[in-house]
Design a protein that fits this description.
By secondary structure, this protein is α/β, with parallel strands linked by helices. It is 48% helix and 16% strand. This is T-complex protein 1 subunit delta.
Length: 534
């Protein structure tokens, strides 16, 4: 009797295998996508890094090597790759600098994770090891750091210069670095020594001149002309300044309504009423001794009309109109005055006082309004940035913002650390030694991550046109001999003591780069499926 073939149900082991294959594929596609983003901006790292030209759909062109700006403008569709864009934004918020570094480190860690996953190590084990590496790295970096005092202006300037050296406007670092230090220290509140709000430093961009013409203004600057079409004053001394949020123009009817005037006498009467209405407002303003008006931009109707400008000119009141709504808070804080929302609330005690308000010609057709010598001025400052074209102007603003953020980091955490790849190679060395003490899979993972951190000195050397393998090998050797501040001097093309070369950065930039990169990589590792919801 022939044996009957019996169909066995598929074993659970086979089902488990198929399921794991899908999870592995999802992890692999996520890691590959994220690494592609990291590789795209890797060439921008360091003072000899390349710049990227970004052309937007609207035809706008941006030239920059700021990691956060490049990634922000890229159209990234893959969800895991978007996480690296968000990672760069996080670093920009926390530290303001190191936005390219954090993405390059994350890309290198992901590369090692892929190797570990291929070797059969479970994602949870890799994730736990990463967490321990992150904590150990922060301890090693803190031990390497040098304390700094805010009174040590030279050290602060060195740190700001290092941040600016990798930018398009690096040749102006000798001007912009001291300017950034002075700007931050001028808004530092002694009662809150660890807190800096960079919204108190307003950057005003004005096309024309060169970056050399950039200046720090102790007072207020408006990128506007004075409204003097009716022959009003352009310079006022001993100014009493009002910031108003109402319109000095005749009231209008509601949008749905209209008035039909068929008689000339009625028309004359309307015009006369309009004149009387405006005149009564200006008399109330003049009665308080106010001689400078800053008028908020109005959407519903004109803030001022030709008629009101004529009467204001007769009253010798200087007018700056179309002040943006979001600038009002900064202006009132600087002038130490209150915004006035209604003519009935116009009081002398709500006015700000300054020695001089004047319209300044910049020599190339542009004009600005400057308010200087403000009485009881708030803790704010203005930086007037100049540039020969819009691309340079925008990049100068971004670079200055990075320099300001670096000084803010030093205010928050008053430690400096060497640059030039020195902290990363020291981390790699010490983590490699620590891996030998650990046991099992953990030791294997830590050793891989220690190797991953060598990507920073390797990329710095590569972008500077040096031999990366020879440089990194020499760097390892110098650190093994105890030279913890030995780093790559890209200008001389050799390894020197980076602290002596004044290439320094805030400790917060390095620690946040490591912690944020490891956090992001751990999150990508834990994803085993992508569910699309429509």
């Amino acid at each position: 009797m022939a044996a009957t073939a019996v169909h066995q149900p598929r074993s659970s082991k086979t089902e488990s295998y198929v399921d794991n294959k899908r999870k592995d594929d999802v992890r692999q596609s996520n890691i590959v996508a994220a690494r592609t983003v990291a590789d795209a901006i890797r060439t921008s790292l360091g003072p000899k890094g390349m710049d990227k030209m970004i052309s937007t759909a609207s035809g706008e062109v941006i030239i920059t090597n700021d990691g956060a700006t490049i990634l922000n403008k890229m159209e990234v569709l893959q969800p895991a790759a978007k996480m690296l864009v968000e990672l760069s934004k996080s670093q920009d918020i926390v530290a303001g600098d190191g936005t390219t570094t954090v993405v390059v480190i994350a890309g290198s860690l992901l590369k090692q994770c892929l190797t570990l996953l291929t070797n059969g190590i479970h994602p949870t084990v890799i994730s736990e090891s990463l967490h321990k590496v992150s904590q150990k790295s922060v301890d090693i970096l803190t031990a390497m750091a040098v304390p700094v005092e805010l009174s040590d202006r030279e050290s602060l300037i060195k740190s700001a210069s290092t941040a600016l050296n990798s930018k398009v406007v690096s040749q102006y670092s000798t001007l912009l670095a001291p300017l950034a230090v002075d700007a931050v220290l001028s808004v530092l509140d002694p009662t809150k020594p660890d807190l800096i709000d960079l919204r108190d430093v307003k950057i005003v961009k004005k096309l024309g001149g060169t970056v050399d013409d950039t200046e720090l203004v102790k007072g207020l600057v408006f990128d506007k002309k004075v409204s003097h079409s009716a022959g009003g004053p352009t310079r006022i001394e001993n100014a009493k300044i009002a910031v108003i949020q109402f319109q000095i123009s005749p009231p209008k009817t509601d949008i749905e309504q209209s008035i039909v005037v068929s008689d000339y006498t009625q028309m004359d009467r309307i015009l006369k009423e309009e004149r009387n209405y405006i005149l009564s407002m200006i008399k109330k303003i003049k009665a308080t001794g106010c001689n400078v008006l800053l008028i908020q931009k109005s959407i519903l109707r004109d803030a001022v009309t030709d008629l009101s400008l004529h009467y204001l000119a007769k009253a010798k009141i200087l007018v700056v109109k179309d002040v943006e709504r979001d600038e009002i808070e900064f202006i009132t804080k600087t002038l130490n005055c209150l915004p006035i929302a209604n003519i009935e609330h116009f009081r002398e005690e709500k006015l700000g006082r300054a020695d001089c308000v004047e319209e300044v010609s910049l020599g190339d057709g542009g004009k600005i309004v400057k308010i200087t010598g403000i009485k009881d001025m708030g803790r704010t400052t203005n930086v007037l940035v100049r540039g020969s074209n819009q691309l340079v102007l925008d990049e100068a603003e971004r670079s200055l913002h990075d320099a300001l953020c670096v000084i803010r980091c030093l205010v928050n955490k008053r430690f400096l650390i060497a640059g030039g790849g020195a902290p990363e190679i020291e981390l790699s060395r010490q983590l490699g030694a620590w891996a030998k003490v650990l046991q099992g899979m953990e030791s294997y993972c830590v050793r891989s991550f220690a190797e991953a951190l060598e990507v920073i000195p390797y990329t710095l050397a590569e972008n500077a046109g040096l031999n990366p393998i020879a440089i990194v090998t020499e760097l390892r050797n110098r650190h093994a001999q105890g030279e913890i501040n030995a780093g790559i001097n890209v200008r001389k093309g050799q390894i020197t003591n980076i602290l002596e070369e004044n290439v320094v950065q805030p400790l917060l930039v390095s620690t946040s780069a490591i912690t944020l990169a490891t956090e992001c990589v751990r999150m990508i590792l834990k994803i085993d499926d992508i569910i699309m919801v429509r």
